[in-house]
Amino acid sequence: MTTLVHGTSTLTRDALTVLQPGFAGTTAPDWLRRHIGEGLSSVGLFGRNIVSPEQLAALTAQLRAERDDVLVAIDEEGGDVTRLEVKEGSSFPGSYALGSVDDVELTRAVARELGRRLAQCGVDLNWAPSADVNSNAENPVIGVRSFGPDPDLVARHTVAYVDGLQGVGVAACTKHFPGHGDTNVDSHDALPRIDVDLATLHARELVPFRAAIAAGTKAVMSAHILLSALDPRRPATLSPQILTGLLRQELGFEGLIVTDGMEMQAVAATYGIERGSVLAIAAGADAICVGGGLCDEDTVLRLRDALVDAVRTGELPEERLADAAARVRALAAWTQSHRARGAESVSGAAVQEGTAPGADIGLVAARRALKVTRGERPYTPVDAAPYVASFTPVANFAVGDETPWGIAAELERLLPGTETGSYDEASVDAILAAAGERRIVAVVRDAHRHPWMTEALDGLLAARPDTVVVEMGLNEAEPRGALHIATHGAARVCGRAAAEAVVGTGS
User: Fold this and answer.
1) Taking Cα atoms as reference points, which of 117, 46, 136, 112 lies closest to residue 83?
2) DSSP states of 405-462 as a string?
3) What whole-number distance in Å separates Cα of residue 199 and Cα of residue 389?
4) Residues designated catalytic
5) Which of 126, 150, 305, 469 has its CA 20 to 30 A from that of 165?
């Protein structure tokens, strides 16, 4: 294990400590290991860093060979946002599916099993769950990542998720404070503005965060949103009124405040990542998340030097940086002490039937989350290889376009010879020509937000009334088709559960 370099000043070590950078590759580069030796206390992992559980475990062991208390963080929500299974799709349904079932013990069990797998691979901080109340059905970035539109439902499942993760020694990072649900802008692209009054904020957005804080969430992630009722000038991530005044003082949160990705345009386009990072720490944030896009040594050096310079010029109080670094180290100490204890608690605790370690709890949950609506005519299950028409919207940055989705692969497993096509515009004639005499299964995602999908479904159902419709996004549009299946998410297990329903073998 490498000890801290003696020539590194306390100020420089503190500046490195508050960074949570990413990197490229499936092994730790020399520059990253060197900076861990100099004081870097956290590393963020993304899909590009992960090939298999075995490789991930080797990578985290490599990082901890430098310092055994380094925090290894990941953005693993399950469902549509997965890094552990970025190439094949998640084994767990996401929050919207769990919220639709509304069984908090199921949610706790799913989070526990997901946390167990993270802990086995050496990951000890998860940038999840999403406590956003998805009150705006046009929201392009939250959607199925939220447990739903009801604050109390979101609160109870956020608590269950936090309990599940932290029960196995993986710190939860509840996000996106003070709530990203009532937006129609993706903060990866621009700055969303929420103009609700304080009464609405407290009755809706803050309900799940209050519950998560009471449940002991170890971390909270800020949102890059402008909440005009509290701060009409700066986004929440950079706002002392929101991070210190509201989160720390009013809600009483004493854990780690982590920023959302600083290279996101909601902050970077106006402030730049260096100035944005200084303002975030000054506002009350303790850890700077960066690396979803910028993942090289130069980014780490730029942010480190910006923080050091801000202290030296008096813009950032040295005690504020020191306090932030201390909170990072405190969480690292908690995860280190709970690593072995978490594994023991999994083997010794009583769990819901079918949720023991290794059980296929994700598929159990995905099957329970299905909502199946039959059309007016009697439904005949698909018993021969169909044609799957996947209507593919542009993926938001959080989800990415690397992860496969849909039900074609699962139908192929059940009905060999299944064929599929992907469409990004209304192409009814092309779909009918490609399908020929085969039954058509139309797979959509947030059909209510994409008029071209509605138009395509109109044409398909007029020509082929026996078409099956599978909605894998928000279930907002009216059910249509010979059979309408709402999966409440696009995880691989959701596709499997839907395929079973299509062929009539669902359990």
Assistant:
1) 46
2) -SSHHHHHHHSTT-EEEEESS--HHHHHHHHTTS-EEEEESSGGG-HHHHHHHHHHHH
3) 45
4) 188, 260
5) 150
